[in-house]
Write a sequence for this structure.
């Protein structure tokens, strides 16, 4: 979450202690992983966590009345669907220090891409006649913690489709193609699609074994990833709205492009790299190979 | 049951868009409508691919609705058609939001499955009405999303509030997609509050559309430090009412 100046008092972070989220997969329970390979829309996400809240200290530090209501709430946001929703809400009326068990389900049909899960301690209703600095409006956030899980594409940041290029408009002997569409403000997940030609056995098999690649597969995948990164940077640099002082929202195409750009070029400015690209495109291509560590980057 | 829909790749979408620009009447596109295109792909996410019979049934239902509203002649009561189409698409497509967020899927609908209806609703359309560039402008995609944001299964008619906000008001919600339009709960309750204020006569002395826009602006400002999504409906409605009255009050002072 971005840092903002809250117009009300907030308690010390030590007043809330949350255990990691646990993900329930059938009978198995695991700590929430970074990504969930093989997930699809039919799989709902069942999550549990414990949160210890020192209600008394929080009310005191925020100058709230002793019996002021507090609530734990869980709000998620999905980059795949672009939807936000609430999955848990537990009022903590009048309690002092206590452990709370959050147990929730997020419908698979509602989400996709990267799923952010925010656990929030909030003021659940508007409070009258409290200290002017106290958090008195409904929804005032006293504490928050964000967790993330990537649902689609495993380690990939966008969807992949293995298709036959033969009957399509794409050259039938090509091995892969990165579709990039939409403005810099559009969701990255909906703007990128990596197409892999099933006719090309080397690349199609490398992707089918991406979770456990052989050495030959790793080389192919490395070449694809390097080319995808280069295509993204070239696409970004070709756009007039990809500029140094732009402020792209989280999980947008612009933010992803900028992230890839920074990984490749560090602190160099977009303006500088764009000029360099115009003057020495072949040297830039080589620099990008080096930046992504193609074929392991051993020297 | 939910289905995966084919996504039309960009090069093919551009090719069809260029071809259709030369077609004089939407009626001439009826014969170009297909349930399949060689450049339409499914992503690797698991799930059932939409059966061709379902695509056929969908295109027939949309085409029938278009005929009721004047197809192939000039569209009559376009707003009414849009509301009816929003209901139809959302009820019958059985598509998940993450799939419906893929712009290429909508390009398949407008350029492959139903080009005749798409070009009838928006004759000589700019690219964003039929291509894969902007869902919030897309002839079909914008309507599915409008229905998805407001549908409420607790109501006898889940789509009852579709008619409360007009196209321009929804555009305002969409333009704040990340902060406000991402949350069906906020959108539904905001419409509920707006309807209530209208019935109470609290909007009588102000420009309704401007008041709605101002309310969204105030809402946008408070979202960083108030988590409205964290609230139950009762508290959320109370806070939205307060924000709307604040915006309306400023217009009157």
């Amino acid at each position: 979450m971005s840092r903002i100046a809250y117009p009300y008092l907030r308690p010390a972070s030590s007043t809330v202690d949350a255990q990691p989220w646990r993900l329930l997969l059938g009978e198995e329970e695991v700590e929430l992983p970074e990504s969930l390979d093989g997930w699809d829309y039919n799989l709902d996400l069942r999550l549990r966590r414990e949160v210890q809240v020192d209600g008394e200290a929080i009310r005191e530090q925020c100058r709230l009345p002793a019996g002021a209501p507090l609530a734990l709430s869980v709000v998620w946001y999905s980059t795949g669907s672009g939807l936000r929703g609430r999955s848990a809400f537990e009022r903590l009326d009048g309690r002092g220090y206590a452990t709370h068990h959050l147990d929730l389900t997020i419908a698979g049909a509602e989400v996709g891409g990267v799923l952010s899960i925010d656990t929030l301690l909030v003021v659940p209703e508007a409070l009258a006649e409290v200290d002017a600095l106290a958090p008195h409006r409904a929804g005032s956030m006293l504490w928050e913690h964000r967790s993330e899980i990537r649902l689609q594409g495993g380690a990939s940041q966008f969807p992949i489709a293995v298709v036959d290029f033969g009957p399509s408009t794409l050259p039938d002997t090509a091995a892969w193609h990165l579709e990039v569409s939409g403005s810099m403000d559009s969701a990255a997940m909906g703007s990128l699609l990596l197409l892999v030609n099933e006719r090309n056995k080397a690349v199609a098999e490398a992707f089918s074994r991406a979770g456990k690649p052989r050495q030959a597969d790793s080389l192919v995948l490395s070449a694809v990833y390097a080319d995808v990164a280069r295509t993204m940077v070239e696409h970004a640099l070709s756009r007039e709205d990809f500029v140094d002082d732009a402020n792209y929202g989280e999980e947008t195409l612009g933010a992803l492009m900028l992230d890839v750009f920074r990984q490749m070029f560090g602190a160099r400015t977009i303006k500088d790299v764009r000029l360099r690209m115009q003057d020495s495109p072949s040297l830039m291509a080589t620099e990008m190979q080096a930046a992504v560590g193609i074929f392991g980057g051993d020297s | 049951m939910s289905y995966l829909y084919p996504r039309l790749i960009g090069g093919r979408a551009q090719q069809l868009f260029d071809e259709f620009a030369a077609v004089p009447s939407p009626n001439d596109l009826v014969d170009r409508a297909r349930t399949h295109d060689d450049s339409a792909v499914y992503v690797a996410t698991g799930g059932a691919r939409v059966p061709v019979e379902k695509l056929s049934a969908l295109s027939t239902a949309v085409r029938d609705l278009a005929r009721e509203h004047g197809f192939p002649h000039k569209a009559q009561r376009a707003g009414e058609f849009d509301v009816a189409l929003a209901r139809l698409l959302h009820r019958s497509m059985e598509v998940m939001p993450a799939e419906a967020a893929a712009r290429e899927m909508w390009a398949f609908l407008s350029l492959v499955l139903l080009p005749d209806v798409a070009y009838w609703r928006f004759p000589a359309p700019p690219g964003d009405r039929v291509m894969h560039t902007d869902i919030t402008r897309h002839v079909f995609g914008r309507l599915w999303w409008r229905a998805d944001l407001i549908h409420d299964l607790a109501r006898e008619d889940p789509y009852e509030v579709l008619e409360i906000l007009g196209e321009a008001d929804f555009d305002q919600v969409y333009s704040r997609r990340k902060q406000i339009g991402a949350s069906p709960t906020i959108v539904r309750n905001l419409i509920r509050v707006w309807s209530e204020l209208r019935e109470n006569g609290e909007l009588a002395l102000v420009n309704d559309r401007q008041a709605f826009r101002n309310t969204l602006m105030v809402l946008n400002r408070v979202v960083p430090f108030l988590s409205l999504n964290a609230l139950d409906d009762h508290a959320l409605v109370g806070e939205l009412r307060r924000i709307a009255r604040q915006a309306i009050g400023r217009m009157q002072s």
